[in-house]
Each structure stands twice: as structure tokens, then as C-alpha cells.
Amino acid sequence: MTRDERRMTVSRGVCALGIDVGSTTVKIVAVDAGGDLAWHFLEQADPRVEDQVARLLDRARKETSQTSEVWDVPLVATGYGRKLVRQAGRQVTEITCHARGVYRELAHGGTLVDIGGQDSKVIGISPKGDVVDFSMNDKCAAGTGRFLENTASRMGVPLDRMGQVALAASDEVSISSTCTVFAESEVISLIAHGVAVESILRGLHRSLIRRIVAMIRTVGLVPPLMLSGGVVQNQAIPRMLEQETGEKVVLPSYPQLMGAYGAALIALEMRV
Fold this sequence. Notes:
By secondary structure, the chain is an alpha/beta fold. It has a domain of 110 residues: Nucleotidyltransferase, domain 5 (2-Layer Sandwich). 42% of the residues lie in helices and 19% in strands. It has nine helices and ten strands. Helix 4 runs parallel beside helix 6. The longest helix is centred in the last third of the chain and has 23 residues. It is globular.
């Protein structure tokens, strides 16, 4: 955070906090009285969730220049580990929080796809911002960030470059396995037969996207098609999703923060 950003945060004043304890990263967001994002921080998830949350809350207080005597703002927790956040006034599902955050920023309904490290969700949002339907994949890693993370290490490609490498491929290998374990075995076999890494990666991304599209069809695609979650920083994800659906993909300014931002907006309502 720059000095100017810190100064802006102090002038706005922090009125509510949201924390998203995900399987891969933990995000914390502060909002001002008008619900605008005033401060945020993100780091890798720590197995000691309680200690990490306490440290992040202390960081939020210090970096927003709040004294401990007046540090009394509502907190809502969401994400994979939300029930471990004892300081939270409420624990709210990711579905509700992502929908709330995205609707606040984009100001319209549609179909939201949230691709996380542990699960993926497709959420139908009404023109008024209500969740009208959803589909969730939380039983199998295929269709989630974990699917790509496992194969990235196996193929020696940095996770943050997977999308770029996949899009650079001149052709694509079909990955038939729908299970991460079997897909990994399939990848090993393809490598052993001399298939280009780029082509394999493109095929892996296509496999993930097609699983997401199947979930979208379950909910029903109502444009616009929106994305949230850290995995959408992989540039191949929105590009291939557009190819498979024929719809333009819309991204919020901070896709990875939408769960925590939505949680903070809910916390802001607790002040009333």
C-alpha cells in the first residue's frame, strides 16, 4: 500500500471488515461508511488459521491508523475456513459474499463464476442482486484451481505462467479424464510420448473450462457472464470461457477480493 493510499484510508475511516479464509489465500478488506473499498491485504493461507486471522486483524488496525481503544468495527467471515474466525460477528457462505461484492461493483445481475482453489461455483444473480440459483463443485478437484496447481508442479511450469503458455500453443491435446488423479496419469503418459507441454496445458485448461460450462448450463446462462476468484488471474480462463460460451466475460477490478468485499458489505449492515 502506498503512502497516498494509506492517507486515503485514514480520511475515509474504516467502518466494517470482511475476511475470506480460502484454501489457498486469505483476503481481508475494509470498507468505509459508504461501502467503498478502503483497504485490503492478501497473503497465502497458513495452516494455523486462528493465529493468521489475529495477525491480519492487528495489521488492519495498524495500517488504517486505528487505535486499539476505538477499534470496534463489525467483522464478517467467509470462505473455506470461516468457522475458525472466532472474532467474526457472522460467518456467511462464499456464494452470498461473492454475489454481494460483485453486484456492488458492477451494479447488475447475470451469471457469476467463482473459480477457487478448493471449489468452483456458478451463481445466478437477479437484477436486484439476489442469489436466485447456484451450482457448486466441492467434491472433486477437477474444475478448480487445484486441478491446474497439481499439474503445474508435475510439468515444471510456474503456476502464474500456465495460462500464458497454454494460449501460446499452436494445437491442443484432449484430456479425457474428469478426475484429477487420472488426469495426472494421462499427462504423464502424454509427456512420455513426447507431446508438447504447451499442447497438454491447453488441453488441461479446456477440460477445466468445459466442466465449468456444464455447471453454467445447470444454472442457466443469463448474460452478462462475470468472473471472480483468484484463478481468473490466469489469462486462459476468461479467454477460453468466452470461446466455449460465446459470451463476453466481465471482470470486477479485484476478482480475488470479491468474497472478502461482500463480507465487509454485510458487516457494514450490522452497524445499523
